[in-house]
């Protein structure tokens, strides 16, 4: 048995920086990774997809070149092996950087293999048994493959296997109209594929407000993507041209035949093969490790960070979990998840930047609300760039004057939303932001104008 001060399972977004803080504090750390250093974000999530989104954006802009007075000899071609190589290189650089830094970190011993608990302070990795008084679980998640009719009989892609494609599918059917599905749908449409999105709910990204969802649908349909919502009975079957996807929704043909099918209906945590029962660590019904607001689990001396605790599903939330745990353990602070303001982006083009509640959630809270909305067609920066799809919207508590939530669906929305996020984090009323003097011409400069136009919610 090898003894350490701490064991970290998983080299995702929280494990490596935590190893850095713990070793800097003089602790010995065993870090166990079973597959790729950097985890989902680096290898099969944010980094490769945002690199592909950038290639798709370039293709889209080139097709629109004449609108800008730029004349090309002909329509652009997509060199898919090169597109893929670019994404692979971005991932590989980051992955090897993380691995290098962990392997050269004083006090850190890297184990490559699958970790499994044998007791609350003992972890087995192949033939090695490791023990520590502190164990940090950062095992992330993977694509959820639902038990839909026919799934075992047809070839299908997930967010991981689709990254191995080095050609453009003839017709990509994307099952799941949420964040991951929509990003792949738009990028492959821009690479030249016929694309159909099949979504069970009546709206795409159904957790967002309907006006956000409807505008995104309009943008995607405007690029020639077919959208089939209310697909209540999705099933798959082999077909001579690929895979037949049964939809059975109220309108349209009952079946779509795709050359390729991407299943993007959600994620599940990597917790079923961790031996959590041996450690006394409890999970919820979907396998997410139950944690307190300070990320401690049901077992003393064990913490769960990142996607596997179900309290966040993003790189920045996993990293913030690391910050909370490190601050409490090493800096004598009392940080908790309750301090975190929810924020995220959806990287369709134009992107959606989001903070806090949706308008529907704010309405459901029963508070008196003020709401302001402005189309991107009235934002100078968007007009200059000829990217006027979308809108910005902010929802305020009429009594406290605090911002409850905001959405910026528009060019630069993923960046501009941070102006609002900072004000929410500062905990001050919205008029502080209204009096700011933003830079011209930016998308952000319209936020004070937006805030100056608040009206009682209907
Ligand atoms: C297609 C896609 C796009 C995304 N885009 C974004 C985005 O733009 N922005 C954003 O914020 N988030 C995005 N995400 C989400 C983001 O990738 C995750 O939230 C983030 O990676 C979670 O980090 P983590 O540290 O919790 O886990 P992970 O990054 O998944 O890391 C977990 C690690 O643990 C290892 N592991 C698992 N089990 C064991 C075991 N038993 N023993 C040893 N090692 C183990 C795994 O191999 C993995 O390396 C995206 C996700 C996907 C799928």
Characterize this entry briefly.
With 458 residues, the chain is an alpha/beta fold. The chain has helices spanning 15-24, 39-43, 46-63, 80-103, 179-191, 210-222, 276-279, 315-330, 359-364, 380-385, 413-426, 431-434, 446-451; strands spanning 2-3, 6-9, 29-33, 108-112, 115-119, 122-125, 128-131, 134-137, 141-143, 171-175, 194-198, 226-228, 235-239, 242-246, 255-258, 260-263, 267-269, 302-304, 343-346, 352-356, 369-375, 391-397, 403-409, 455-456.
Describe what this molecule looks like in 3D.
The chain is 30% helix and 23% strand. The mean pLDDT is 96. The longest helix has 24 residues, at 80-103. The protein has helices at 15-24, 39-43, 46-63, 80-103, 179-191, 210-222, 276-279, 315-330, 359-364, 380-385, 413-426, 431-434, 446-451, and strands at residues 2-3, 6-9, 29-33, 108-112, 115-119, 122-125, 128-131, 134-137, 141-143, 171-175, 194-198, 226-228, 235-239, 242-246, 255-258, 260-263, 267-269, 302-304, 343-346, 352-356, 369-375, 391-397, 403-409, 455-456. The strands form six sheets. A six-stranded antiparallel β-sheet has the order 19-20-23-22-21-24. Strands 4-3-2-8-18 form a five-stranded parallel β-sheet, covered by helices on one side. 44% of the residues are buried. A hairpin with a 5-residue loop joins strand 22 (391-397) and strand 23 (403-409). It has 13 helices and 24 strands. With 458 residues, the protein is an alpha/beta fold. The chain binds flavin-adenine dinucleotide. Flavin-adenine dinucleotide binds next to strand 3, helix 2, helix 3 and helix 8.
């Amino acid at each position: 048995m090898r003894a350490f001060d701490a064991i970290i399972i998983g080299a995702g977004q929280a494990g490596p920086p935590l190893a850095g803080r713990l070793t800097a504090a003089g602790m010995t750390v065993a870090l166990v990774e079973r597959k790729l250093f950097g985890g989902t974000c680096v290898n099969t999530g944010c980094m490769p997809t945002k690199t592909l989104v950038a290639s798709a954006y370039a293709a889209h802009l080139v097709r629109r070149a004449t609108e800008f007075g730029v004349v090309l000899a002909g329509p652009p071609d997509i060199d898919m092996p090169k597109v893929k190589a670019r994404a692979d290189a971005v991932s590989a650089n980051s992955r090897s950087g993380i691995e290098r830094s962990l392997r050269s970190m004083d006090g850190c011993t890297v184990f490559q293999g699958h970790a499994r608990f044998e007791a609350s302070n003992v972890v087995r990795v192949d033939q090695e048994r490791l023990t520590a008084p502190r164990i940090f679980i950062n095992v992330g998640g993977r694509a959820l493959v639902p038990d839909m009719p026919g799934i075992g009989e047809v070839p299908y892609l997930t967010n991981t296997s689709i990254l191995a494609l080095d050609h453009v599918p003839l017709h990509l059917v994307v099952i799941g109209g949420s964040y991951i599905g929509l990003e792949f749908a738009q990028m492959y449409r821009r690479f030249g594929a016929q694309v159909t999105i099949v979504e069970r709910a009546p709206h795409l990204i159904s957790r967002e407000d309907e006006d956000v969802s409807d505008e995104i649908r309009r943008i995607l349909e405007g690029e020639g993507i077919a959208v089939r919502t209310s697909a209540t009975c999705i099933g798959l079957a082999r077909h001579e041209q690929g895979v037949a996807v049964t939809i059975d929704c109220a309108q349209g043909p009952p079946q779509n035949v795709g050359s390729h099918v991407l299943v993007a209906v959600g994620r599940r945590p990597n917790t079923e093969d961790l031996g959590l029962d041996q450690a006394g660590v409890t999970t919820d019904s979907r396998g997410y490790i139950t944690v307190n607001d300070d990320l401690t689990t049901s077992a003393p001396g064990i913490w769960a960070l990142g996607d596997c605790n179900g309290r966040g599903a993003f790189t920045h939330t996993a990293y913030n979990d690391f910050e909370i745990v490190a601050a409490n353990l090493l800096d004598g602070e009392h940080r908790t998840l309750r301090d975190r303001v929810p924020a995220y982006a959806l990287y369709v083009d134009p992107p959606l930047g989001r903070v806090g509640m949706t308008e529907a959630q704010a309405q459901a809270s029963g508070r008196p609300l003020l709401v302001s909305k402005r189309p991107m067609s009235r934002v100078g920066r968007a007009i200059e760039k000829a990217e006027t799809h979308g809108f910005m919207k902010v929802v305020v508590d009429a009594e406290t004057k605090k911002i409850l939530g905001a959405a910026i669906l528009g060019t630069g929305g993923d960046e501009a939303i941070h102006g609002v996020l900072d004000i929410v984090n500062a905990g001050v009323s919205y008029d502080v932001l209204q009096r700011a003097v933003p830079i011209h011409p930016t998308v952000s400069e319209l936020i004070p104008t937006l805030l100056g136009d608040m009206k009682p919610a209907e």
